[in-house]
Amino acid sequence: MLISAAIEHLSAASTEGVLLTMAAVAMLLCAFACLGSKLFDRYVTYYGLQSIVLSFAAAVVALHEHEAGLWVLAALTFLVKGIGIPYGTRHFLIERFALKRDVALSTGLSSSLILGAFLTAFAFLVIRAGTVPDALVSQATVPISTAIILLGALCMVVRRHTIAQLIGWLIIENGVFLGAITIVATFPFIVEAGVFLDLVAAVLIMIAFVSGLARQLAEASAPQLRQLSE
Amino acid sequence: MIALALIIVALPLVPALAAALTGRARTLGLISAAAGTSALALAIALAIDLSTGHPVHALSGFIYLDPLSGFFLATIALVVALSSFGSAAYLRAEEERGELSSLQVRLYFIFFALFASMMLGSFETGNLGLLWVLIEASTLASCVLVGLEAKAVSLEAAWKYIIISSFGVTMALVGTLFLYYAAGNLTGSPTEHLTWSFLFAHAGALQHQSLRLAFLLVLIGYGTKVGLAPMHTWLPDAHSEAPSPASAMLSAALLNTGMYAIIRFQALTKPALGAGYASHALLIFGFASVLVGALFIVLRGNFKRMFAYSSIEQMGIIAIALGFGGTLGFYGALLQILTHAIGKAVLFLTSGDIVLRYRTRLIDEVRGVLTIAPLTGAVLLLAAVAVGGSPPFGLFLSEFTIVRAGLQRSSVVLVAALLLLIAIVFIALVGAASDMALGAAPARPTGGPAYTERSSRILAAAPLLAGLAVLLLLGLWIPNGLNTLIMHSIHAISG
């Protein structure tokens, strides 16, 4: 394998580098958009959009690396995360139970956005400290993917509805995936495929649980889940 | 040997296939018990083979077995065997009472099978990425068991469990990525950079900064599965809401699977970062867990929750033992993993019999188990004493070893604090168990006998008696084979 071909050494100024950085920024914006919304429909739309951008980023890396496995992953990301999961969530949960907006916000929209901005700054401060070498594309994408992970976690915390928690976790997963393809594109395919399979299984089980909860509680909101507090 | 290893993973899946054909708990339970027992026999045979110390690998490290894998395989296979007997009896009783539909019975056996198989599989892979995939898959399978009863409260527990563990395990994936990144400068193929044996051989050359981050993320990630405080919050809910044989699997098998992953990563950090780095982190999380376990176990509410807090405390003790390190520390940790697994499996299976009998999970509503069901009452008392860490049972020996390791390698203050907390847990656990076992039986026995048929009674009693017998044996004498296996396991992770 040519050393210069490895994504770990891809410079930020190359065409692929610019495309990847832009994709990462678009994904960060999607995460913010999700955080700044309280309509379930929007959560799902922004998540789908973010996944489509992610599949584009994966395709850029695949083109660069000439890896068949990465092409498959890009296609799977597009089909499953970009279309399948948003469609499934909308069809089986939001429309079926006529869920509209998240009423159980623990902080206001603006304060959660400010918190999100702080977390993004924090991610840049922490990762810049020398984990990733200078002038590489990963220097931009790794802090951004860390920020996306933190924003997803923030979504899970401040939006209390189970659907919001589900989408928050999926955003975290997207952040991890972005970091993975830009620092270590050569992750063995079989492992990536296994990770993907687990994700799909997890989403299916979560949808089943949320619909079970929605049937029993009318509003499947996490604050209602307090029988087991101790 | 590879074929044997694959059969061990495949055997627990047989009941899942059978569940496609029938939804009767009676048939499925017997198949499950038979599959569990044969997997146990094969796992012990494999562990004996592996105890010579020579690792076996195939498929470029995707299959990798060393003595440590053998030790965990045998331990978890034992738990699976005990719980599958328990499941056979418990599910039959629930089916007869009309508490579970045929679909729920099928789902139970399918996901119990997947759960067992994924956990056993995770000990047989040397690829840390695949290890992550299998551990996450076992979480998913087990959360279906937690939510099986589909009541609001069990769905709540299952939701908490899946969302907290998925988040935690995702952190472990990030940690695994950073480890892979840390190996970037090494020669070798990408697959080798995720293979434990390759990384262990080159552990000294891993990049320090990334490795530090990797270990902490992995400790938090897999620590969520182990139930280390403060990531333990899913654990009491899931353990109390799952059907009791599934609680036994969660507590005695799943937590140890997480611990296995942590042990593997700990071994990788030592050459580059020194023993202290991982040790300190493990000691901090370990003490936090023992403290949380001891504080919450004194709340006398739900007895399954109480046993769950005892699991948190026990996992904390194991983490502390790993933190002490050295041959004694690792020996104590591994022995504690084995003895706690058996003790806790017995305790949760007993709790299943009590739930069936009294139809409650509250300590204060259960009195006089010894009078109503002498065997269950006696096992409850003895198992509580055993898990509390009293002689002549195995846990005394392992905790004693851990204390010795602490005195040898750490400070007296830490050891004294640990002993104090262990004493609190012992008093709370045995106190509650004796209140439940003794005392006047309620005037109206709420649920009728737990099991109506003789065969169910035998199925339910067999794992309790077998487990207690093994615990007693391990308290009096460590068989030579087990000793060799543990010593070679320690050698495998300390080079």
Q: Your description of this structure?
A:
The complex is a heterodimer of chains A (230) and B (495). Chain A is an all-alpha fold and 230 residues long. Chain A is built from 7 helices and no strands. Chain A is globular, with a radius of gyration of 18 Å. Chain A starts with 14 loop residues before the first helix and ends in a 13-residue tail after the last helix. The model of chain A is unreliable at 1-5 (pLDDT under 50). Chain B is 78% helix and 1% strand. Chain B has 20 helices and 2 strands. Chain B has a two-stranded antiparallel sheet. In chain B, α1 (2-10) packs antiparallel against α5 (102-122), α12 runs parallel beside α18 and α16 (374-388) runs antiparallel to α18 (412-437). The model of chain B has no long low-confidence stretch (mean pLDDT 93).
Briefly, what is this?
The complex is a heterodimer of chains A (230) and B (495). Chain A is mostly helical. Chain A has seven helices and no strands.
Helix content of chain A: over 70%
* % residues in beta strands of chain A: under 5%
Q: What sort of overall outline of chain A do the alpha carbons produce when their principal axes are compared?
A: globular
Distance N terminus to C terminus of chain A?
Answer: 56 Å
* Mean pLDDT figure of chain B: 93
Number of helices of chain A: 7
Q: Which value, in Å, is the CA radius of gyration of chain B?
A: 21 Å
Which regions of chain B contain 5 or more consecutive residues with pLDDT less than 50? none
Protein chain pair with the most extensive contact, residues per chain? A-B, 40 and 47 residues
What is the multimeric organization of the chains shown? Answer: heterodimer
For the secondary structure, the number of strands of chain A is 0
What's the number of extended β-strand segments of chain B? 2
